[in-house]
Amino acid sequence: YVFLWFWFIGVAIFSVLALIYTIMILAIPSIRVRVLMKRLHNRVNKKMVEDILSSPNHSWVDKIGDYWVIYLLSKNLPSVAMKELLEELKPILNPNPQYGYETLDKDANLEK
């Protein structure tokens, strides 16, 4: 029974830490951007991810939903495909570009 008690305490601590991590992701938009940048191995411009996740027409719940869908896609798509997807989503979700950043076509022209 002593082992089970320590196991319960360990699982409880892990659960509290996971809950705190989830609350931080929901509450702080910059952490959402960091998580996606880490998933994409920094191959996508950070400003582009910030623009997509901060769509001015969306409520807070919609922004969380956008993050969740993009996060799940980033787990299942290679980073090059995610870069293309984000470039296609940018004009739809946040049509007013505030920053200049490279597109995939410009990156291809630099390699030539």
Largest sheet: none
Number of strands: 0
First and last CA, distance: 67 Å
Rg of Cα set: 18 Å
Task: Assign a percent range to the helix content.
Answer: over 70%
- The shape, in one word, is elongated
SS-derived structural category:
mainly alpha
Strand content: under 5%
Low-confidence stretches: none
| H/E element sequence | HHHHHH
Mean pLDDT across all amino acids:
85
Individual helix count: 6
Task: Provide a short characterization of the protein structure.
The protein has 112 residues and is mostly helical. It contains six helices and no strands. Helix content is 76%, strand content 0%.
SSE layout:
Layout: H1 2-27, H2 29-39, H3 46-53, H4 60-76, H5 79-93, H6 104-111
Could you characterize what this model shows?
This protein is mostly helical. Helix content is 76%, strand content 0%. The longest helix has 26 residues. The protein is elongated. It starts with a helix and ends with a helix.
Keywords, separated by commas or semicolons:
112 residues, mainly alpha
